[in-house]
Write a structure and sequence with these properties.
By secondary structure, this protein is an alpha+beta fold. The protein is built from 15 helices and 28 strands.
């Protein structure tokens, strides 16, 4: 006996329960923990082949000859591709993407060939046998502040002026009662997400499908399509699950182009995975920096002048200028100020985004210098920052939509027991260790870019929301579900959120702490439009469903009336072995003001993840350049050290309530980046307090403490 279910003609009564702000479990959690979530490399279309790249072994030169004979004779080898036989690409705006298009070698590790074979093992062996002969040229891979080719870029990432100046900083420095004038440096650091970059490329006539590990499916589509002379609609990028990015997957890079090129040449679907070692050459990194910070103040620590000069590097084939000194423009009050950026193009891979680009190295220098000023003036480091709190954005003059840095500093000091701190350095011992505490501020801009979304009501009382957003492990699906649930006044169980596919409405990349703000705005507007349409229909839903869409370009493009930033305070306690110089972070506390927190559970993970990465930056991370060969010596996890469980002993992240109606419909600020900002400075300042040794060059190695 069977029964027939008649679809409802109207939706169930809508709920009033607020879901934004609740600690909702991840909606895809079961898929992840059971292994059902599919990542790029796990897609295996029929007739699949494997691609293995060949990388340049010189830092600068030209390819003379490519000998593929031994490679193509191996069983199972389908093709060996190099500049002489590679499919031609349209000249890209980003020359890094002109893969296998010329004889020129711009850096060691650049792709010079690729082998396609039936199995990964065959492809690897063939790539090993392929021989490339080079005309070697002299190379230059060393960043120096006095490099003769240093120049002023027109803009720094994303579109800030390279230099700014207000007042008379040089005269103010000459007249200041207390002056700090120091050089700080940070090394090259490499993004190392758990999932390496991977692409499966499938051609079907003039159509191309890319299963790609990316932070932005729409961006990959729009970049790859013109390279192959295709309209964007002929390229589909699928990335439902991404195992981390930290910025390295924020823009299309050479591996995805190489995979598409290899598949086109071979006439077969091709799978390409970048090894951990290869990632140190072809997937970006944080530029090393040399920074001179000059602060002038009165004896009570009130700043009269701030000057911050940053020197950094890019590659010969593409300019990327990190916005290192930009946070200095708005952090503290001072009537006289100057910030500058200088860039040198070297024979190195192109730097790119790495979690909180610019703010991370820049705030290490600024917050270290603030600590030095506090010591010179005999003022508590927390109080010094409070005394220099601006009433409005020092650069633009705009009022802040919200600025709760002082509240973060006060709450952090209370929780950390800062009032009990003896300011004298190098005198506290515990269990044989020198113990010290340090503080630094955090900040990150509020970004929002246009996105589109659709919202749909189904006849069975459920809803679906579609947007080409990407979840790189941050919980994007979950928070978008909560945002949609609140707007539709429906339980999360009745809402399906589809993301990770360029066939969905366009969305910004998952990066720059702008994902939730940008995507959430589009989701809210689409759900609002759907609610209005449902109300107009008296709640009736046609059997085929009801769908509406929203585009936030006009809303997001409106001129800002406020300066918008997230703020925070980092507190660190360290223990340093006086004999060996080994440093351990005993406690780490971050207090943040980031608007409305959409999901406390995912937010805590983001804050703690950033803080852990900042701890790692302070103590371990350093990509060491071999000047003779032009390559990074420690290009694997055996030698590129990152924080492990033993290094992260007690990390706590909290936030204060912040109501900011000027941001977006959710009142939320991005939180993916701010956790790392300032952490390294807090650790370095704590090391000074513990030992009396000021470390101005990261990482804080043993030899920098034991002399």
């Amino acid at each position: 006996m069977s029964t027939t279910t008649t679809p409802p003609t109207t939706l169930p009564a809508r709920e009033a329960t607020p879901y934004v702000g609740s600690a909702l479990d991840r909606v895809e959690g079961l898929e992840k923990v059971t292994g059902q979530a599919r990542y790029a490399f796990e897609y295996s279309p029929d007739d699949l082949a494997y691609a293995v790249p060949v990388q340049a072994t010189v830092a600068r030169g030209k390819i003379r000859t490519v000998d593929v004979d031994a490679a193509v004779k191996l069983p199972g080898v389908i093709a060996a591709i190099w500049h002489g036989n590679a499919p031609r690409l349209a000249p890209p705006e980003n020359a890094e993407l002109a893969v296998l298009q010329s004889r020129e070698v711009a850096y060691r590790g650049q792709y010079v060939a690729v082998v396609v074979a039936e199995t990964l093992e065959n492809a690897r062996e063939a790539a090993r046998l392929l021989r490339v002969d080079y005309q070697v040229e002299e190379h230059d891979v060393e960043l120096r502040a006095d490099h003769p080719e240093m120049y002023r870029p027109e803009r720094v990432n994303p579109a800030y002026p390279a230099d700014t100046e207000q007042g008379e900083p040089d005269a103010a420095l000459a007249e200041a009662q207390v002056v700090v004038d120091e050089i700080y440096s940070t090394p090259a650091e490499h993004n190392n997400p758990m999932e390496p970059h991977a692409t499966v490329a499938v051609w079907d006539g003039d159509g191309l499908t890319l299963y790609d590990s990316t932070q932005g499916a729409s961006s990959v589509r729009d970049t790859v399509a013109p390279l192959f002379g295709l309209p964007p609609g002929n390229v589909r990028v699928v990335s439902p699950h991404v195992g981390g990015g930290f910025g390295s997957k924020g823009m299309p890079l050479s591996p995805v182009v190489l995979a598409a090129l290899a598949a086109k040449h071979a006439g077969r679907p091709v799978k390409l995975a970048v090894t951990r070692q290869q990632m140190f050459a072809v997937t970006g990194y944080r530029t090393p920096t040399i920074q001179r910070v000059r602060l002038g103040a009165d004896t009570e620590g009130r700043l009269s002048v701030i000057v911050h000069d940053a020197f950094e590097q890019s590659s010969r084939i593409r300019e990327f200028a990190e916005q290192t000194a930009t946070p200095t423009r708005m952090m503290y009050a001072a009537p006289n100020r100057r910030t500058t950026h200088r860039l040198v193009r070297l024979d190195v891979p192109t730097p790119s985004w790495m979690r909180a680009p610019g703010e991370t190295p820049g705030m290490f220098a600024l917050e270290s210098a603030l600590d030095e000023l506090a010591v010179a003036c005999g003022v508590d480091p927390v109080e010094l920052r409070v005394r220099n709190e601006p009433d409005a954005d020092p650069e633009s003059g705009l009022p802040f939509s919200s600025r709760n840095l002082v509240a973060c500093l006060r709450e952090g000091a209370r929780r950390f027991g800062w009032a009990e701190r003896d300011p004298a350095p190098g005198i506290r011992r515990r269990d044989g260790l020198l113990v010290g505490t340090g503080v630094a501020a955090s900040t990150y801009p509020v970004y929002r870019v246009p996105s589109r979304a659709t919202a749909r009501a189904e006849w069975d009382g459920t809803f679906s929301v579609r947007i080409a957003a990407t979840d790189i492990g941050t919980g994007a699906r979950t928070v978008l579900t909560q945002i949609a649930a609140d707007t539709l006044r429906a339980s999360p169980e009745r809402i399906s959120v589809e993301i990770g596919d360029s066939a969905l409405p366009d969305a910004s990349v998952a990066g720059g702490s702008m994902g939730t703000a940008s995507w959430g705005t589009a989701v809210v507007r689409a759900c609002e439009a759907l609610t209005e349409e449902l109300d107009r229909r008296g709640g009736e839903v046609p059997e085929e469903g009801l769908e509406v869409s929203a585009d936030t370009a006009r809303e997001v493009g409106a001129k800002r009336r406020f300066a918008q930033h997230a703020f925070g305070a980092q507190f660190a306690e360290v223990g340093v072995d006086p004999d060996t110089g080994e440093t351990r972070v005993l406690r780490l506390l971050g207090v943040f003001a980031a608007g409305r927190i959409v999901n406390p559970k995912t937010a805590r993970s983001q804050f703690i993840g950033g803080m852990t990465m900042g701890l790692s930056m302070a103590l371990f991370e350093e990509s060491v350049m071999d000047r003779e060969f032009g390559d990074y010596l420690n290009h694997d996890f055996a030698q590129y050290h990152i924080a492990a469980c033993a290094d992260v002993r007690d990390v706590e992240a909290v936030w204060i309530e912040e109501d900011d109606p000027h941001l977006n419909p959710m009142g939320a600020k991005g939180i993916g980046e701010i956790g790392i900002v300032g952490t390294a400075a807090a650790v370095a300042n704590a090391v000074y307090h513990a030992t009396g040794v000021r470390v101005r060059d990261l990482p804080i190695r043993l030899d920098r403490l034991v002399r």
